Amino acid sequence: MSHPLYDGAVEILARNDLGHYTVPTHGLYPFQWNWDSALSALGQSYVNESRAWTEIETLFDHQWPDGMVPHIIFHKEDEGYFPGPSVWGTERPVPTSGISQPAVTGFAVRKLFERAKDLPSARARAKALLPKIQAWHDWFFATRDPEETGLVAIIHPWESGRDNSADWNAALSRVPTEGVGDFQRRDIQHAAAAHRPTTEQYQRYIWLVKHFRAQGWDTAKLHDASPFRVVDPGFNAILLRSCADLAWLAEQLDEPAIGARAKTQSDKGLAAMEHLWSDRHQQYLCYDRAIGAPVDCLTVGGLLPVFTAIAPDRSARIAARLEDLARRTTYMIPSHDPHAPEYDGERYWLGPAWLIVNYMIADGLNRDGHTEIAARIVGDSMKLIVESGFSEYYDPMTGAPCGGPHFTWTAAMVIEFLKQTGGVE
Asked: What is the DSSP code (8-state) at residue 401?
């Protein structure tokens, strides 16, 4: 039986499909983005199983020799995006950016493997990806956790996926703007300026890119060279969930060495996450490694750890925090606490609700038995689509669509939710 939302989501996946990779949306994001691809493959897996595997394989075709998987792959020229390949200057055979993004691929590949109808193909394709994903995880722990704490730092706000989150304000304020020069932003030609990061933030983003380029993109040096080094609990939770899922996959695919390594990384990171817990706020906080202090800021990054296997009492407290947020918003989950002074319901990660975050948090809540609040999150997600279409993100009070339209990973999450809730066969 067909469902209009399912059909609409499938249409968007097809619209943004360029054969072996998918763009998040035409215009605003005309290239392949790292975590967009991994999460979009979840939706594709129900529509065209082989194509879902290709999405992730294409991403890893552009893995750097040191193991990094870049956050953007510039498959073809497009003047409509800034900063493009000439600004990054990474000198890869196919141009890429020089930083990474949340490592959600281990989780996605497990999902693809578990739901595969063509099991021989899935086994072969997962087995080929396994060492590549492990190499990426190894790269994170080697280059972004030099003191072997068990948790990695991001060195640029773009790596977090939550570009303009208030979590970064203090650390980003220490990034200079001198010498950035003039540039023309392209994002605000495709989306309302009020929905996007500010120009001053962009100046600091570009300063970091130019600073890293001056280091020759030697990723082993960039952590210590960056004035921006933040341990994000949400980013780490996604990485640690992928480590655990990679360990599970390795067991299924007779790769015990990878399995043991991935499990060790997951266990060590989960123990270290306790240092980021705030009893005062009843959620996790970022940690500014450059100054050695927690970041007193209430964002969805501190709730995302429920996606991974945190302790039951921590999961229960996050569920309670989410129930409180549900009482204060029309649509879950706001990316920033609405009572906080930085909150802005339309501006990117300062308040809007994102379906990918809703999906990951609901996944962890359901696993831990917090099914009522998980159902509220999924229900709100579907209401947003009915009322405002397949947008990039949404105002959690009004439900207004924000950012780019016809968004791939939003469509993919709709397919996931419909399949999970029995909305479609």
From this structure: E
